Automatic annotation (TrEMBL):
Organism: Nesterenkonia sandarakina
One Pfam family it belongs to: DUF3073
Xref: InterPro entries: DUF3073
Renumbered residue ranges of the record's region Disordered: 1-32, 48-83
Protein name as annotated: DUF3073 family protein
Amino acid sequence: MPGIAQGHEKTEGVSLMGRGRQKAKATKQAREIKYYTPDTDLTALERELAKTRGERESSSRPVRPDTEERSSGFDPYEDKYGR
């Protein structure tokens, strides 16, 4: 084929690209990916965060009662060391 270097034939409709064009295209694609900012669905984010907070609060350890609410004998070391 005239105009194409020997050993570099066109493969299934894909034309060969020189290294400079290939690098420029890769740079362009990388830049598009880097600066791509999709529309954020803030209501979906809010629902997800609310759901996560609810799960975390229900699965946390039980809260220790305040000192006034504790009955005597609750802590065997309370009399000795005080709190």
